[in-house]
Amino acid sequence: MGKDSKDTANSSLEQVSDIHCFGGRQLRYRHRATSLPCTMNFSLFLPPQAERAPVPIVYWLSGLTCTDENFVTKAGAQRVAAELGIALLAPDTSPRGEQVPDDPAAAYDLGLGAGFYVNATQAPWAEHYRMYDYVVDELPSLVASSFAEIDASRAAIMGHSMGGHGALMIALRNPSRYASASAFAPICAPSQCPWGIKAFTHYLGDDRSRWAQYDTCALIAGTEADIPMRVDQGEADQFLEEQLMPEKLVAALPPGYPLSFHRHAGYDHSYFFIASFIEQHLRFHDLYLKANP
Ligand SMILES: N[C@@H](CCC(=O)N[C@@H](CS)C(=O)NCC(=O)O)C(=O)O
């Protein structure tokens, strides 16, 4: 495959880089998105097994301030993904480009790098900030149409912080699309913490009844889904009490819900925490991806 000549149904898909890693390939692509009107980057790891037969895929959603590259360079996920035969796709965390509105105050928790995986309904965000549709519909369709190396029907989803909120919320709303979901230090109750209240007020408006569709705690309390979940939380996380509130998630669980929750003394919010437990998350997803061939 040539550097910029991917044989694809999506003619705008352009390969930006292709780097060998643990016998597989760490790739980066750029494409003109349709669910949000701008050019988006995403990173994709293909394990060595993808050369022989289509492999399952795990989507990774990053947190505030990240692009598609933080996970690729800091989590150290490729070694275990290469062993298990799992593709990893990391999208960006918001729409990008000069025409995309940003927070006038340039705060890190609103606008660029802070899409919160919702479809915004309010001006000036509504045209571009459609990360829910981008992650749930556009990327899986693109994978199915453009990457014969991947079996798009075998998918799981995971993420960190804002992306942990995204992964759990998206899985709860689309349980037939994902075999399993997991999160590191997720924002569990965005309707009740400062990061979430700020973002949802701007993106969704003041009417809080519209927020529940994007709130993991609200969704899980009323769910009939039983998608297996794993959550890991560092006890020295600087955002634990004010922003993340995992105790609200545990309290909201319906009886018998298959959530495996792990607390870790001393670990903070950083990618050092993610790198320490990414292997357990990938092995967790592998269990369910293999059980659903
Ligand atoms: N304001 C803080 C919060 C941002 C933050 O901690 N972001 C997390 C996700 S919520 C992250 O993954 N940052 C990028 C990185 O560590 O590579 C900062 O800019 O350091």
TrEMBL record:
List, alphabetically, the GO terms of the cellular component aspect: cytosol
Which keywords belong to this entry? Hydrolase, Serine esterase
Tell me, which GO biological process terms does this entry list?
Answer: formaldehyde catabolic process
Catalytic activity line of the entry: S-formylglutathione + H2O = formate + glutathione + H(+)
Give the EC number: 3.1.2.12
Cleaved signal peptide residues: none
Entry annotated with the keyword Plastid: no
What InterPro entries has UniProt attached to this entry? Answer: AB_hydrolase_fold, Esterase-like, S-formylglutathione_hydrol
One of the record's GO molecular function terms: carboxylic ester hydrolase activity
The active-site annotation reads S161 (charge relay system), D237 (charge relay system), H269 (charge relay system)
Xref: PANTHER family = S-FORMYLGLUTATHIONE HYDROLASE, S-FORMYLGLUTATHIONE HYDROLASE YEIG
Briefly state the protein's biological role.
Answer: Serine hydrolase involved in the detoxification of formaldehyde.
The family annotation for this protein states: Belongs to the esterase D family.
User: What is the name of the protein in this document?
Assistant: S-formylglutathione hydrolase
- Source organism (scientific name): Simiduia aestuariiviva
